[in-house]
Amino acid sequence: MTQDPFGLTDRGSATLHGHPLWPAWRLPAGRGDVLRFHDVQEDILVGTWSGAVDHDWTLRGEAPPMVCVGVLLEGEVSMEPAQGPGLTLRPETTVLYAMGQAAQGADVVKAHGRLCLVEARFPLRILLPLVADTAMAVLREALFTLTGDGSDPQDGGVFRVGPASPGARRIARDILAACEGGEGPFVKGLYLRAKALELLALALRDILPAPAVRVPARDRKRIAMACRLLEDDYGRRWSTGALARHVGLSEKRLQVGFRHLMGASLHAYLRSIRLRAAMTLLGNGQSVTETAYAVGFSSLSHFSKAFKDHTGVSPREWRNTTP
């Protein structure tokens, strides 16, 4: 295993190149300490982004053919492919994308206080024991694309975004801890390879559809509308029936389609949104009680338990330790 093969310990601007799974990018001056790479066995590349972000960064380059899974724990990142629509990743999000050919684009890291992102990149041959074109065809058939009409967001590529499951967040934190640990390169390489493959397997399990389930394009658009309603009005006491009426679906079609496409139930998705909002409010100094009711919890004890399950610390600890 080779750590930091791009020479990122330099405090000045750092050019990222030299690995077949990474585009040629240039980090802003003084930001070379935010990004770390670990090149593990079978050409798997593990990257961790961890540090303060006081202004927007734009990183442009050509991404090579690959499969990538990422978990954004903190911060905000916009992915802007040269062809097709872009997407914005917010905290507690998992993204899985695969490209059968090189693609131009940019990632914009937003000035969101702090960035914490873990990603693992794989050659296409790692994903399936098939030729690359066949692997991409399987992925296109299986993954829900952002356009909602069955088309790919960019030539040769597929994207899927959803809330990060507890398991995905746990693996991401394990990778962060391992990257900062003092184990020898051989042991660390084995551990990171296992964690990278575990993260990919978990993302595929959460995202790949059941063979018998097919969600029509019309339903996909209405489910996307349901997501926006939950994100924009998370403090409301939503019921499945009320949300279904708002978007024009039956409760059953909404529940089945939502779980199939988003990898989580309506309840779990809304709870994740509320807890992300609570993290922000507490970090801004709002009291635990005010925060609980502001984000839609009716029970303070229930909020405290859910928050600790989600973040690993109590709301009060989060409030007192957030800079």
Largest sheet: 7 strands, antiparallel
Number of helices: 11
What is the oligomer described by this structure? single chain
Give start-end ranges of low-pLDDT stretches. 1-15, 128-156
Shape: globular
Q: Report the sheet-strand fraction.
A: 15-25%
Question: Total number of β-strand segments?
Answer: 13
Overall average residue pLDDT: 77
What is the N-to-C order of secondary-structure elements (H for helix, E for strand)?
EEEEEEEEEEEEHHEHHHHHHHHH
Helical fraction equals: 40-55%
N- to C-terminal separation? 35 Å
Q: Strand pairing plus helix content: what structural class?
A: alpha+beta
Strand order of the largest sheet: 1-4-5-12-7-10-13
Provide the gyration radius in Å. 20 Å
Overview of the structural elements:
It is a single chain. This protein is of the alpha+beta class and 323 residues long. The chain has eleven helices and 13 strands. It has helices at residues 124-127, 132-142, 166-180, 185-207, 217-232, 240-247, 251-262, 266-283, 288-294, 300-311, 315-321, and strands at 2-3, 14-16, 25-27, 35-39, 45-53, 57-63, 66-74, 77-81, 87-89, 93-99, 103-109, 113-122, 157-163. The protein has a seven-stranded antiparallel beta sheet with strand order 1-4-5-12-7-10-13. A hairpin with a 5-residue loop joins strand 8 (77-81) and strand 9 (87-89). The longest helix is centred in the middle third of the chain and has 23 residues, at 185-207. The radius of gyration is 20 Å and the shape is globular.
